[in-house]
Design a protein that fits this description.
The protein has about 260 residues and is α+β, with helices and mostly antiparallel strands. The chain is built from six helices and ten strands; from the N terminus they run αββββββββαααααββ. Bound molecules: zinc ion.
Amino acid sequence: MPEGDTIYRSAKNLNSVLAGTVLTRCDIRVPAFSTVDLTGETVDEVVSRGKHLLMRVGEYTIHSHLKMEGTWHIYRAGSRWYRPEWEARAILANERYETVGFQLGTLNVVKRADEDSLVGYLGPDLLGPDWDPELALANLRREPQREIGLALLDQRNLAGLGNEYRAELCFLRGVLPTRPVGEVKELEKTVELAKRLMEANKDRPVRTTTGKLRGDTAWVYGREGRPCFRCGTTIERGELGDTALQLRDVYWCSHCQV
Ligand SMILES: [Zn+2]
């Protein structure tokens, strides 16, 4: 599941092959922007903002969000793609590389000055230069009645966490995802831990919250019906959502989390 660490790494990799080069091909395959052609423009940089990817090209920004299925691939010019052509939503190439966005959840092209219309609502980015733990904490505390499992996922509070991190953070802090934010003890430690886990995972291809790089990389996420590594209690799965966030799976240990 793409979360902030995945997008950070995608941006870094794309930046390494695109930044400072001139586009020799720009093919945007969504109806609203199908006439956009930035061929001949120079790519300044590719950066992540929470779970959003921003490619700054000439006066424009190509914005994408992977949602559940999306991915960006990098190919040497002329080499064969690993995904079918019909899944491609955006193709940006220079003399040496071809970068292809497959099944992107969202794709927009805006004037660079208007980036905020797409990402301005985001809270401080866990992996961004604007990271501000105090502000993230204040944002989380704004709605003390809201479930912690939802508050952590709401990108307006802090940007970058997805479904896996929120489940793992709640487990590691010993709190049920349904516990209201106002009742979570030492909430600042949850924010600190989120930052620490994201930093630890941002440069490696495998996300882990257990410290193991293969096999059991998560405490509760995706482990329903199996025994808790700490206490042996069966891990449970449910759904959590509200008016702002759609229902998503959540996992917990009813013994380790209260
Ligand atoms: Zn347990």
